[in-house]
Amino acid sequence: MVGPAAVAVVALAALTACSSAPDPAVNGGQTVVDAAQTGDFLAELGLEGLDAKQAIDKLDRLPTEQRPSEFTAQVQPSQLVLTHQSGRTAWLPMPKDQYYLSAAPYVNQTHSCHFHSLTTCLGELYGEEVKVKASNAETGEVLVNKSVETFGNGFIGLWVPRGITVDLEFTYEGKTAKSTVSTAGDTNATCLTQLRLV
Question: Among 60, 79, 125, 182, which one is most buried in terms of CB atoms within 10 A?
Fold first, then answer.
């Protein structure tokens, strides 16, 4: 579904919502929650007992209007960074053998993004059926080949093997977007927004 409101929201997201630069070392004004307090911190955020993958899945599936505003959840290749508005921050390690990609195919308008923010990033197409195909670029192995409904924020979440190059193809209403991404290293993108459907 695409409408004026969606375009306006995406324009706002371009300015405020997503991380456009890979700089995981920046920690200005933040207080790191120590291991002994992490459980309490996660409980406060509504993520008690969840690992990174489970937390991502929970936040992905929330309707946009129910996504928390008091904290951000930024997906980096090796960790999920949870930052409360008070400045408190905790990290949850990502699976060692899997890499998370969040993709937002678009028709009219998009925004710049590098590390996906589960609580603030907004794409153009929400609640729409998109055909997704992901393949290992080196071996040709098909990793994903199915139709999915975009989340309430307009994104599609994919878990793929770590340490490979992935060919991606998205098809929507006869239009297609393609991209090739690397899942090796700790600075590569987790947020894919330059996916214009043509």
Answer: 125
